[in-house]
Amino acid sequence: MLDCQANSVQRWLKRCGLLTTRVPSAGLPPAWMLAADTRSVRVRFWIMTDKDREKWDSRYLKDIGGSGPSLILKAFLGLAPCGNALDIACGNGRNSLFLAEKGFIVDAVDISTVATNHLAGRDPNINVICQDIDAWKIPQNRYELVVNIRFLDRRLFPMIQDGLRPGGVLIFESFIGGKKDEYCLKQNELLQVFQSFHIVYYEEKKSDHSDTFDQTVSLVAIKTDSAV
Ligand SMILES: C[S@@+](CC[C@H](N)C(=O)[O-])C[C@H]1O[C@@H](n2cnc3c(N)ncnc32)[C@H](O)[C@@H]1O
Question: pTM value?
Answer without folding.
Answer: 0.81
